[in-house]
Structure formats: C-alpha cells, structure tokens
Sequence to fold (122 residues):
Amino acid sequence: MGDYQDEPTRLRAGQPHCPYCGLPVDRAATLEHDWVLLEPDMTPPAHVVPAQHRWIVLSDGRVTVYGVCPPDPAQRCRIEHRLACAAQPLPDLWPWLTTLRTENARQARRRAEPAQDWPDAG
Fold:
C-alpha cells in the first residue's frame, strides 16, 4: 500500500495569493487562454499606465492588454500584481507604483508578524 497522510490534501478555497509576498491577488483569464495575476482593488486611469501594462476587463470577464494610445481619458485599467509586488525585484515604472509597492511590503510584513498581546487596561 502507498504512504498516506493523516488528512487528505485539500485545495485552498477563496482568493488566490501571490507566491512571492503572500498577499491576495485577482486571477483573470486572458484572451490567449492563459492566466494573469492582477492587483486587487486597483483600477488606475489607463492614461497613467504604459500601453504594454494596461489590462482591460472585457464583457465576458477575460482581460487583454490595451495598447491604444492615447487611451480614452475615462478608461480604467488593471495592472499585474508582479509590478506592485514588493517581494519581486522590478524597476519602478511610475511614481505611484513606488508607493503601492511600499504599502504592499508593509502589509506583507504585518501579515508575517505574530499578533502582539495588548496590556490589560481594565
């Protein structure tokens, strides 16, 4: 007989997490039948994101790179999490991305630190 664990392996349910920093990400299907991890809750105006990094959500839920220049000023887009991931060494492409990467690093540190007990004030 094979070697079995005490409990069966289970798939993690819920929102996927970045394998580098551990923060939640949005996993989206692309038109090329692939997957991309997007920064959650982040939809900057498309005109502030370089064309090769703009991901536009289509009506069927898939995403595609939106290289139209200049984009419609009202158009919003998504960015890949790898650009904002503080655990991956990437150049800072835009000034606001530096701030986002710093905030993600702070969140990752806070998740990794054990909770501290507050003194009894009672």
Notes: The helical segments are 81-84, 95-112. The CA atoms of residues 2 and 8 lie 13 Å apart. Strands lie at 26-29, 35-38, 55-57, 63-65.
